[in-house]
Amino acid sequence: MRAAWPHGESMRATWIETASRHRVAGLLRRSTAPILLALVSLQMAQISSGADAVPIVIAHRGASGYLPEHTLPAKALAYGMGADFIEQDVVLTRDNVPVVLHDVHLDTVTDVATVFPDRKRKDGRYYALDFDLREIKQLSVHERVNEKTGAVVYPRRFPLGPAISLQVPTLAEEIQLIQGMNRSTGKRVGIYPEIKQPKFHREAGHDISTIVLKVLGDHGYRQRRGDCFVQCFDEAETKRLREELGCELPLIQLLGRSNWSSSVGHLNAEEVSRKLKQVAGYADGIGPPTDQLIARVQNRRVVPGPLAVTAKQLGLQIHPYTLRTDDLPSYAATMAELVEICLDDLRVDGLFTDFPDVAIHARDARQRKQGK
Question: Which residues span the domain enclosing 21?
Fold first, then answer.
């Protein structure tokens, strides 16, 4: 049976159209040959005449609003809820096995302090890179807690108490789970790995990017086929993925607050334009905090800021993070309203969310309302 896109073959087709448009825009930005410019402009006009792609919903750490983040049950739940892509944050163990964990630390989401009380570093933290996979598999994953207070970060989510065994999965295990469900359901849900802190790993003698790309390649993720994005906050490393390591997969440059905001918390339009032009030379899109896309709220309407406007002009996809029903911004009363703001006002191409079912319901309701 031919594998289907989560929301139908038409969604996959329009997604590929948009990906092609972004790719063509990249050629246009980098080209100086008049003939090529003319041909590319014609191709862009032809592609743009098609229907707009349905924005994708990316399950942030799985269905992490319902189950402890990055556990296989959280990923299976996200799959069942209809997520288009499922995210994997990736760090390395001491024996160079990529595991799915949001931080290089273990102590905020596992019982490592109880199982290995003497293995913390001088800063009091427990690092995944100090443990072999065999040791990490002895740990139980729980809901995220505050490093200093031990209190749960999101009190209304999965309780901290139940004595159930949830392990830290390897990247390979998670890919096999998603691919297995793709086979049994006929869907084609994508993966969305993030390479975490490559500089930290490199300074410890581990090339995380090379290792992660090998695991992806071993499982069939090598070329652009619409089912895998690779993301990273480190701009130099994202560029290295493309130019040195020859990664052909779509790359998303994640944007942090510190290096993309001025001292007063607003983005400088000229600086944003300069930086985004550099990003557009090696990446296919950006992943900013949602509020970085907003200039101001006026008459109950969100006005896009220079980051959103310039990214669209450069043909970059926009996948902001993170939409949460239990942590809504001041300019949105509900998740449905936040989704509408992102899709209608900010014109994003995808959304990271801890609550994929709520975001999907809001997106699909909007699509029906617009007759799409």
Answer: 1-51
In the predicted structure, residue 127 carries a pLDDT above the cut 70: yes
Active site residue 60: yes
Pairwise CA distance, residues 220 & 124, whole Å: 39
Catalytic residue among 7, 60, 142, 206: 60
CA–CA gap between residue 120 and residue 100 (Å, rounded): 20
SS3 270: helix
pLDDT of amino acid 300: 75
The C-alpha atoms of residue 39 and residue 75 are separated, in whole angstroms, by 43
The whole-number pLDDT of residue 370 equals: 85
For residues 40 and 171, state if they share a domain: no
Pair 313, 361 in one domain: yes
Q: How many CA atoms lie within 13 A of 300 on its CB side?
A: 3
Selecting among 7, 22, 70, 102, the annotated active-site residue is 102
HSE-CB of 85 using CA atoms within 13 angstroms: 26
Residue 201's alpha-carbon distances to 15, 196, 207, 286, in angstroms, are: 34, 9, 6, 23
Structural domain contains residue 315: yes
pTM (two decimals): 0.88
Question: Under 8 Å CB-to-CB from 201, ≥6 apart: which residues?
Answer: 91, 92, 129, 207, 208
Same structural domain, 2 and 57: no
pLDDT category at 267 given cuts 50, 70, 90 is low
| Amino acid at site 266 | H
In a domain, 113, yes or no: no
Nearest to 45 by CA among 66, 15, 24, 73: 24
Query: Domain check: are 289 and 335 in the same one?
Result: yes
User: Is the confidence at residue 51, as pLDDT, over 70?
Assistant: no
Would you say residue 140 lies in a domain?
A: no
List b or e across 305-330, with b for residues whose CB sees 16 or more CB atoms inside 10 angstroms.
Answer: bbbbbbbbebbbbbbbbbbbbeeeee
Can you give the pLDDT at residue 12?
53
Q: What is the pLDDT of residues 137-175, one digit of tens each?
A: 999 999 999 999 999 999 999 999 766 889 999 999 999
Pairing, β 294-298 against β 285-287: unpaired
DSSP one-letter code for 137: T
